[in-house]
């Protein structure tokens, strides 16, 4: 695979980093194409990495033309009689999509009344008016696949419906038993569209059977005539109001005896000699030819003796006229004929695009008028070297090789030998060179850099797309920005640890040329605390099969996506796990779960992202320890947790005195949706277990191992907000909070009821509450509040019933009594890190919707209590998933408003908790 095609493959799979451009991409600019890397350095190898979550701004197909609704029709005409009104109109421009129907809207004394839909095949509508005493007007709007177009101007008040006027009969010529009759429509249709015409033959003033013909064309053949009889014809118009009066009769014709006039003349062209004869059979020569209606094209005349129409046409158009032929016996035949005259050929070139060396060039002129086929050539001067003209189509194609200004004369010659010559001014500018600079060569991960691209020497306009050739050889598309005044400035956060080799690719909107800049290098260094251990478990004995074994969940604690390949997890004894290149990115506030073959929290939402043979630690010691390294130049350790020296931050965690055989995990405390990172393990972590009491000599809090996964829900408490069930009551009043006294068969319970409201702009398809603080032995403290001297001891338990109903604000609402997710066991119950999933319906929790829920706690000991949770969710946030360059580069007004609202909510949001006193 060549470098360019390799790049095109990789652009769809590499990470899109956070991009904030000083000038945003605007509609109409060229799509970002993958650059040609034929001249790239030899070491810039390109490898293929599989796609997972990412859809960066890579090569895209040209967007289809946007559909537009139809134009507004002209003001309709209206007529009425009693309560019946007929509205007629002409079809407007469809604007690229067929018209599918019309909407006719009546206005009664200027106020809109009920509209009527009409099929696309009709351009009239019959309406029933509510009153005959009011003033009525009407508008018409057309519809197509893009929607309804603008309405027309209002009609004048309706005139009185009447029969159509009489048509004007223009010509009649007879064959053996038939005659061809032509007419002109009536001056007025009486306000109702003409549906048919009725032709009536007469013999000596005696009416013969009429024949009804369609409304178009205005020519018809009357059949069933008798040879030798003398006929005249009338025509009358038929509408919804009835049959109008007959026209004046035609001149008489005698089938098989009168001159039979016919015409097969072709079109002609301005400036081309024309000659054609009006053909006649029957009748008796000599004939006399004359024009009785209409006129010949200017420059043409008819020979009254021969019927030859000849001359040199001087004006284009379509000319309708009636030719009358009178035989020597006085018998007449007349025929309506049409002579189209096309204009002489004229070259039309809307604009001549700028050309650029190495850029494919194409210019397609058009010709108006003339007679096909056409022949194209260069009459004088010369095209730029590298370009040629197609003699059949006139298209100028090629790749120019020499800069300069050229003025060739382009000639077109039509089939009649007429020509047009037009000089074109074609400018070829030098190939655009893009020079890229960066404001720093080294930066911390999640910190911005500024790239500046200068373009020249010719005119430039279009976009530059930023690419990152990364440590593993992959290429990431970081987004695009607009070139302004031959310059583009881009502020972005490099997406990869280690060496980021950045370059830009220029797509011109002035020419078809592309250009790739030089490469600038930026070393991106990790910072402690950016990648954290969220939860982990190590059995302490590598050679004894434990029922519940090892896992670690790592957490992206930055604002941009973090590349997973190359991140290393280390454990004592030389255990090293390197996340492979088959993995992609870890979004902000998401976790990545690594487990061994014995990790068995085996529910679908908790399956490990990566399965490894072991996560340590030193066999048979009971010691624990894990640390995380990012693949920057120095292998920065961003976090460590455990009891083994070198594998903890601050002070160590205590070690087990024997292998634990119950579900447990070291869980990092969360404060207001954020992981706590004081760089001291005993402060930041709590040991949680699904059982009560110490575990193998270590104090533990009741809780649930529930690590975060790459694809799972993540903390969105600022978007999916907790609200009171009844806002008119205090938080500690019923029904928001209820204390159920103990009975001989049931301990005291605390029930907390709240609403979860989606303040985002997309549906939330999975929502759960994660317990982050609870007054319990060895639990997490209430953030920002000194521990009370006599804290209560609570356990989260499952409710007795699935739902409950309450009256709030005069309405009945249903509260979902939440149950704890696996692997929590009840009894004893749950606590820290325990999840409770909301039972959403199909479609999820839509924006603005609130679901009411309750949490049930058993009270093991009275006193001051507190409980808090985070809301984890999939969905609810901006339309574009977190981390995409497209989101950062171009954000819709709707997304901006939603983001601003969520940021303001986050600033004002307190910990979602309850607190009080239990006796």
What are the defining features of this structure?
single chain; 919 residues; mainly beta; Immunoglobulin-like; 5 domains; 4% helix; glycosidase; signal; FN3_sf; Cadherin-like_sf
Description:
The protein is mainly beta. The chain has five domains: 3-59 and 431-525, Immunoglobulin-like (Sandwich), CATH 2.60.40.10; 77-152, Immunoglobulin-like (Sandwich); 360-429, Immunoglobulin-like; 531-702, Immunoglobulin-like; 714-918, no CATH class. The chain has a seven-stranded mixed β-sheet with strand order 55-54-49-48-58-61-62. Strands 64, 65, 66, 68, 69, 70 and 72 form a seven-stranded mixed β-sheet that branches. Strand 17 (231-239) and strand 18 (242-243) form a beta hairpin. The radius of gyration is 43 Å and the shape is elongated. The two termini are 75 Å apart. Mean pLDDT is 85; it is low at 1-64, 879-899 and 901-911. This is Fibronectin type III domain-containing protein.
Strand content: 35-45%
Give the C-alpha Rg: 43 Å
Q: What general outline do the C-alpha atoms trace?
A: elongated
Measured as a percent range, the helix fraction is: under 10%
- Straight-line N-to-C gap: 75 Å
Summed up, the domain count is: 5
Per DSSP, the total helix count is: 4
The residue ranges in which pLDDT falls below 50 over 5 or more consecutive positions are 1-64, 879-899, 901-911
Q: What is the topology, as strand order, of the major beta sheet? A: 55-54-49-48-58-61-62
For the biggest sheet, the summary is: 7 strands, mixed
Tally of strands = 74
The averaged pLDDT comes out at 85
**Category by helix and strand content:** mainly beta
Region (Disordered): 49-84, 895-919
Keywords: Carbohydrate metabolism, Glycosidase, Hydrolase, Polysaccharide degradation, Repeat, Signal
Protein name: Fibronectin type III domain-containing protein
Domain Fibronectin type-III: 69-162, 163-258
């Amino acid at each position: 695979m060549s470098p360019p095609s390799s790049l095109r493959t990789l652009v769809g799979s590499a990470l899109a980093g956070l991009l904030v451009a000083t000038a945003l991409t605007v509609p109409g600019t060229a799509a970002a194409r993958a650059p040609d890397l034929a001249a790239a350095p030899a070491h810039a190898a390109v490898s293929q990495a599989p796609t997972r979550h990412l859809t960066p701004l890579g090569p895209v197909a040209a967007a289809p033309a946007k559909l537009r609704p139809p134009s507004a029709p002209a003001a309709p005409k209206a007529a009425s009689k009693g309560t019946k009104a007929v509205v007629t109109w002409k079809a407007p421009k469809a604007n690229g999509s067929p018209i599918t129907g019309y909407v006719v809207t009546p206005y009664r004394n200027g106020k809109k009344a009920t509209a009527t839909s009409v099929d696309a095949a009709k351009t009239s509508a019959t309406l029933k008016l509510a009153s005959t005493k009011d003033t009525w007007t009407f508008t018409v709007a057309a519809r197509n696949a893009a929607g309804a177009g603008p309405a027309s101007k209002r009609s004048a008040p309706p005139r009185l419906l009447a029969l159509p006027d009489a048509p004007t009969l223009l010509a009649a010529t007879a064959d053996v038993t038939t005659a061809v009759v032509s007419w002109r429509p009536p001056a007025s249709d009486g306000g109702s569209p003409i549906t048919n015409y009725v032709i009536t033959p007469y013999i000596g003033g005696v009416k013969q059977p009429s024949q009804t013909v369609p409304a178009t064309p205005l020519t018809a053949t009357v059949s069933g005539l008798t040879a030798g009889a003398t006929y005249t014809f009338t025509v009358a118009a038929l509408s919804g109001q009835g049959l109008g009066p007959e026209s004046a009769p035609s001149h008489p014709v005698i089938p098989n005896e009168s001159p039979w006039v016919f015409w097969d003349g072709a079109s002609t062209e301005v400036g081309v000699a024309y000659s054609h004869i009006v053909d006649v059979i029957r009748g008796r020569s000599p004939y006399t030819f004359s024009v009785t209606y209409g006129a010949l094209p200017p420059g043409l005349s008819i020979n009254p003796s021969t019927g030859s129409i000849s001359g040199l046409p001087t004006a284009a158009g379509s000319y309708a006229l009636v030719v009358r032929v009178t035989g020597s016996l006085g018998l007449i035949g007349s025929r309506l004929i049409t002579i189209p005259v096309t204009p002489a050929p004229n070259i039309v070139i809307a604009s001549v695009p700028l050309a650029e060396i190495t850029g494919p060039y194409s210019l397609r002129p058009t010709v108006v008028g003339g007679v096909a086929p056409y022949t194209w050539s260069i009459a004088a001067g010369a095209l730029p070297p590298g370009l040629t003209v197609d003699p059949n189509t006139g298209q100028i194609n090629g790749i120019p090789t020499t800069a300069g200004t050229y003025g060739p004369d382009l000639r077109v010659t039509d089939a009649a030998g007429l020509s047009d010559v037009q000089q074109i001014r074609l400018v070829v500018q030098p190939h655009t060179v893009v020079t890229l600079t960066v404001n720093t060569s080294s930066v911390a991960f999640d910190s911005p850099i500024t790239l500046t691209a200068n373009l020249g020497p010719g005119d430039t306009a279009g976009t530059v797309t930023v690419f990152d050739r990364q440590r593993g050889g992959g290429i990431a598309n970081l987004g695009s920005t607009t070139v302004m005044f031959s310059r583009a400035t881009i502020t972005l956060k490099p997406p990869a640890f280690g060496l980021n080799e950045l370059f830009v690719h220029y797509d011109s909107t002035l020419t078809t040329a592309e250009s790739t800049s030089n490469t600038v290098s930026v070393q991106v260094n990790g910072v402690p605390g950016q990648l954290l251990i969220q939860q982990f478990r190590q059995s302490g004995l590598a050679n004894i099969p434990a029922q519940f074994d090892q896992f670690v969940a790592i957490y992206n604690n930055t604002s941009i996506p973090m590349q997973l390949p190359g991140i290393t997890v280390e454990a004592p004894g030389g255990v090293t796990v390197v996340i492979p290149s088959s993995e992609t990115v870890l979004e902000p506030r998401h976790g990545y779960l690594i487990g061994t073959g014995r990790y068995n929290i085996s529910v679908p939402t908790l399956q490990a992202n990566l399965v490894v043979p072991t996560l340590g630690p030193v066999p048979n010691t009971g010691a624990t320890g894990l640390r995380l390294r990012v693949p920057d130049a120095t292998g920065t350790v961003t976090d460590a947790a455990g009891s083994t020296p070198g594998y903890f931050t601050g002070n160590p965690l205590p070690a087990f005195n024997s292998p634990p055989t119950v579900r447990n995990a070291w869980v990092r405390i969360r404060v207001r949706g954020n992981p706590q990172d004081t760089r001291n393990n005993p402060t930041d972590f709590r040991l949680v277990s699904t059982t009560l009491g110490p575990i193998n000599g270590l104090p533990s809090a009741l809780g649930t191992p529930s690590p975060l996964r790459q694809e799972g829900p993540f903390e969105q408490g600022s978007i999916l907000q907790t609200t009171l069930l009844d806002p008119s009551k205090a938080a500690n009043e019923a029904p928001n909070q209820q204390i159920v006294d103990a009975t001989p068969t049931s301990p005291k319970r605390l029930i907390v009821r709240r609403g979860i409201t989606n303040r985002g702009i997309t549906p939330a398809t999975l929502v759960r509450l994660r317990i982050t603080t609870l007054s319990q032995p060895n639990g997490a403290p209430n953030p920002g509040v000194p521990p009370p001297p006599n804290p209560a001891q609570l356990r989260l338990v499952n409710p007795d019933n699935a739902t409950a109903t309450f009256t709030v604000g005069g309405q009945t609402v249903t509260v979902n009594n939440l149950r704890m997710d696996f692997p929590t066991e009840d009894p004893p119950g749950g606590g820290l890190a325990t999840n409770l999933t909301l039972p959403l319906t199909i479609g999820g929790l839509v924006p603005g919707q609130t679901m009411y829920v309750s949490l049930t706690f058993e009270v093991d000991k009275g006193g001051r209590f507190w409980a808090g949770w985070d809301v984890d969710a999939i969905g609810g946030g901006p339309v574009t998933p977190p981390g995409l360059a497209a989101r950062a580069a171009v954000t819709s007004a709707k997304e901006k408003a939603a983001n601003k609202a969520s940021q303001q909510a986050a600033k004002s949001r307190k910990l979602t908790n309850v607190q009080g006193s239990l006796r």
